[in-house]
Amino acid sequence: MKKxxxxxxxxxxMAVTALTGCGSDGGATTGSTASTGSAAAEESAxxxxxxxxxxxxxxxxxxxxxxxxxxxSSDARKPYIQQMVDDFNASQSKYHVNYVDIPxxxxxxxxxxxxxxxxxxxxxxxxxxxVKFRAQEGQVEPLDAYLTDDVVGGFYEQYMESCxxxxxxxxxxxxxxxxxxxxxxxxHFEEAGINPEDIQTWDDLWEAAHKLDVQDGDxxxxxxxxxxxGNGGVDTWLINANGGPCWFDxxxxxxxxxSDVNKEAFAWVRSWIDYYGDSTYNEISAAFSSGMADPFxxxxxxxxxxxxxxxxxxxQTAPDLNYGVILLPEFKEGNxxxxxxxxxxxxxxxxxxxxxxxxxxxxxATSYEVQDFLCTAMGDFSGRNDFTDESQFFQKPLVGDIAKxxxxxxxxxxxNSIKGYQDVINPIIDEGTLGIAPTDDVLDRAQQAFSxxxxxxx
Length: 458
Prior knowledge:
The chain is an alpha/beta fold. The protein has helices spanning 3-24, 28-43, 45-53, 78-91, 104-116, 131-136, 149-152, 157-162, 186-192, 202-212, 234-242, 260-276, 278-290, 310-317, 355-365, 368-378, 399-406, 421-433, 439-457, and strands at 64-70, 95-101, 123-127, 172-177, 180-185, 214-216, 219-222, 303-307, 323-326, 339-340, 343-347, 409-410. The longest helix has 22 residues, at 3-24. Residues 28-60 are annotated as: Disordered.
């Protein structure tokens, strides 16, 4: 990476460190936590109002204790999750939910182990993309006995489909979803004379990005864009180009890794790295990955692809940043603005002792009022289809613009018959991203590796 760009990143890292120090100096941590908790309490009014509308369980004496497992432990999220749990407990007296946050790297294996031991938690947060797999493996309880049409009808069809097993039973309800958009620095755009509405295709994005580049001699002090940093990967752009799954055919599950569209799109992705140089890409990518510095927040990058939840991070790291969002541009004109996205669900692990109580909590946590509260507080998006401009969440800046991307978001559900293929092709794809081998050759080899994998798993 050029020295001046690296210096800017280091300065940003020092600024983030300074902000962190202020939050923990001399016992300020307690004050900071109390302040966050207070914010949660102030914003919990919609959830508390919802409490009276939720079906109140009759008082049968001592409350049944339920465990809710998830991984949200940060100050930016845990207070609101805890507020939701507290509000549910206050809304009725039959069940008492305890929130247990377990590190993301441990929770899934621990969940499987507890199911195998016959002693699972009662409610589990989990990935939306693998509900079908967990259903097939007998790891989750079906919800059909408890579901009503009004509950099912409150979610986008695509997300309910993701929560439905191959046997037709529903095994989870959507808790949060995400999509991807391009965040852009409004001040940089104005300086360069760029209208964000003019960025409609990949060619437009390339042209705009390089108007935003700033160099001092041979050194970059600012770069316009890199497609595979932030929260975008090769698959983000290939899914955009294909308007859906890029590595396999949804109907036949046959590999489509080395299609003509993929070859053109992957070459385009690599061309950005070639333009700026491998060292620039490596430093920018490492800065995002480490969490120590955010090149977009610090002004080192003018645009970045990121998830819908990125607004919450920017509110903390760059509260004064003047930015906007645009949809991912079209591969070709008329191709669509498809973004890849996923989400998390709430489900009942197989063998849970009180599935009826677990469902009551899941229904509460995914209700309109509680989802409005959580989305407003944490910046996540909901899988519900009944949010309106009147909701508290949609009154927040940029939410309506980002929500447009949900309409063209593709949630890729891997068929159970080819689950695990990513572990085979991803290391090969990485060779093309890193420039170790030509992208066309990489896709041909990945196609063969996928075919071999599929042949041994049928």
